[in-house]
Specification:
Layout (H helix, E strand, L loop, with lengths): L9 H23 L11 H30 L10 H25 L10 E2 L4 E2 H29 L6 E2 L5 E2 L1
Antiparallel strand pairs: 1-2, 3-4
């Protein structure tokens, strides 16, 4: 008979989600900077603040997507089990958000692309920002699922094993 594993608190899970989203997105932002006309050719340190703010915006988008999923599933910990359908739903919502963000930013002139940015036909948005949210939102959620499972396995009661005088294993 299996015993129920303790599940981390929702606040802890959201904190880990935010941290994972920031770490993933900050690195992605730094790597894709040469594909944006406003950042191309600038030294690494000059893009640091811009990329940090962009990554914080991506954290907000990740938390919003997680929140929408939690409301739809009527379950605050909807992303913790780590099932494929959760990741697919999160990826689809994230892709839609990425397209909307890019369309708006391009229309308002907030940024533009260099020739290093592949453009997605029909959508007319950059491939890197589309892939960024589509992959990293489910990736951050997978990190929370991994963390929660690892934490639960550490807190699960351990059975003691001993050998008695007759050399029989006893659990």
């Amino acid at each position: 008979m299996s015993e129920a594993r303790p599940v981390p608190s929702p606040i802890a899970c959201i904190a880990v989600l935010a941290l994972a989203a920031f770490a993933f997105n900050w690195h992605w932002e730094m790597l894709q900077m040469p594909a944006y006309a406003e950042m191309a050719g600038r030294p690494w340190r000059a893009t640091l603040t811009t990329c940090t703010w962009a990554a914080l915006g991506d954290v907000g988008t990740t938390l919003a997507i997680f929140g929408v999923g939690a409301l739809a599933a009527r379950k605050l910990r909807w992303g913790i089990p780590g099932r494929w359908n959760v990741y697919l739903a999160a990826g689809l919502m994230a892709g839609a958000c990425a397209i909307a963000i890019e369309w708006r930013a391009l229309a308002l002139g907030r940024w533009s692309y260099t020739e290093q940015m592949p453009i997605v036909p029909v959508l007319d948005v950059g491939l890197w920002p589309l892939l960024q949210l589509t992959l990293l939102v489910p990736g951050a959620m997978a990190m929370v699922a991994w963390w929660a499972a690892r934490r639960a396995s550490r807190k699960a009661p351990q059975r003691q094993c001993s050998i008695n005088a007759e050399s029989h294993l006893k659990f």
